[in-house]
Amino acid sequence: MKLKQLEGLLGDLQQFSNPKVELEQYPTGPHIASRMLFTAENSYGDITDKVVADFGCGCGTLSAAASLLDAACVIGFDIDPQSLETASLNADELEVEIDFVQCDITKLELKGQIVDTVVMNPPFGTRKKGADMEFLSAAMKVASQAVYSLHKTSTREHIKRAALRDFNAKSAEVICELRYDLPKLYKFHKRKEVDIAVDLWRFEPRQN
Amino acid sequence: MRLIVHNMLTCNIKGVVNKFPLRIEAEKVIKKDVDFNPDFLRHMLAKIEWKALVDGARSMGYTELPDHAPALESDEPFLKKFHHALLELNLEEGSLVCQETGRKFPVEKGVPNMLLHEDEV
Q: Which of A72, A186, B70, B119 has the smallest C-beta neighbourhood within 10 Å, fewest atoms?
């Protein structure tokens, strides 16, 4: 599948109808999602024929991208039932098979080494402090091969240090820097659109 | 929920020791065809908890899996059964039951709800 085609398909997905601000629900746009997963597969071979978990899957954009790039199995995890409902509809629309689990990612305990790759666009920690680190910690416990995650560029040094020192990372690399376009989703947003610098990270866990 | 997912889910209630596997109570199971990928299946064979898979499949009405995976992985008839159990059986409605506490995690429209109550955290 070509990048443009992937981006087009992801652009048709339904997004949050009533985003919950306390969960930091923002859609992962098709531009970022397609590039993130395309890179994960073409540069690192982390998606096709792999078991891929999407932490904080929301409406399932990253999960859908992984499926379209022929992951062997995709599992989306989220705490919010409405998002999971939308994600299921999106999977049906695309005619892809995605499993979903409703849970609190910070309390989740998964057994074994079944998951190869975790992909995620986690909360940045602007509502619940430290949420970004909790998601990263959880992902590093589950992935046997790689974790792809988006974090604010302003937290770059902090993330690198935590990953290598506390979360069992063998490597922690910023693959590229992206501009995340956040449209005005919530009433309290003053500007029509805001543009945040985010890093796309690839972490490799140490073998257990 | 497919058995590949069931094979990784545990009961995360505070203090529980016997967290895995969760027993399946199936109310509605549907079968969805998935492309057969023998290389992927061979790769999974080393990672799957076999007994949990066999018991899970039985709870969903599929009894064809042997009690032990055969030594010869290239056995295609076996791989087809493994494929069917792991990837094609979908629990749409039912529960996942913690073997220690009896707590039921509901499965609705194929999605297990693993959220804990306040006193379980």
A: B119
